[in-house]
Amino acid sequence: EVQLLESGGGLVQPGGSLRLSCAASGFTFSSYTMSWVRQAPGKGLEWVSSISGRGDSTYYADSVKGRFTISRDNPKNTLYLQVNSLRAEDTAVYYCARGVGDFWSGYLPRFDYWGQGTLVTVSS
Amino acid sequence: QSVLTQPPSASGTPGQRVTISCSGSSSNIGSNYVYWYQQLPGTAPQLLIYRNNQRPAGVPDRFSGSKSGTSASLAISGPRSEDEADYYCAAWDDSLSGVVFGGGTKLTVL
Fold first, then answer.
1. Residue A64 falls in which region: left (phi positive, over 0), alpha (psi -120 to 50) or beta
2. What's the sign of the alpha-carbon dihedral A89, A9, A107, A66?
3. Interface membership of B44 toward A (CB under 8 Å)
């Protein structure tokens, strides 16, 4: 059974940092593209970033480029999102999601499995 | 303001066919696959339609997707009360080099 379990969220002051983690199980982690998608309270979905199975290719939304870094540790079956210079508008539930094997742009919006999310609140 | 445009709400009875539209441009829907997600209250989204009109295993066949030009649609034939949820379309955008979502449509089954 595919499982994705996010952690690392919490309350942080503006300008602060966090590292979000997503522990994966039930599939060959290194064979799949992984992504982060967020959802502000009461709002819609917003794609944040995607990373290839080998970790050598990444994409970022313009809203987070230069502040967030996606990475993965395949031997540990874990996806990460380092979030720096946090702003109030980054407040959201952050979901990790599994994509497909091919790191091709047309397939990137395909998220077959999602975790339950971790809440990041940016407030003073 | 979302790159993909969806109506904020839709409704229908179990005997009707309900459609949810998703309007984009040549850089996203016009040149890439469209995906649809269902988000039930308080839960994570679930993939409903991929590559414009394909259903993952386990998705009922009352859900169908279509695409024409720079627009796409999700149809629900005979919606049930358990289909009350938010629905989102998504696609890759060549100009933005990123994934774009619609703003979401809340479905009410009357």
1. alpha
2. positive
3. yes
The B residues from 70 to 109 touching A (CB cutoff 8 Å) are 86, 88, 90-92, 94, 96-104
**pLDDT tens track for A53-64:** 999 999 999 999
Residues of chain B contacting residue A6, judged by C-beta atoms under 8 Å apart: none
**pLDDT range class, residue A105, cuts 50, 70, 90:** confident
Closest chain B residue to the Cα of A96, Cα to Cα: B44
Q: What is the pLDDT of residue B81?
A: 96
Yes or no: say if A90 and A9 are a contact pair by the CB < 8 Å rule: no
Average pLDDT, chain A: 97
- Which amino acid appears at position B67 of this protein? K
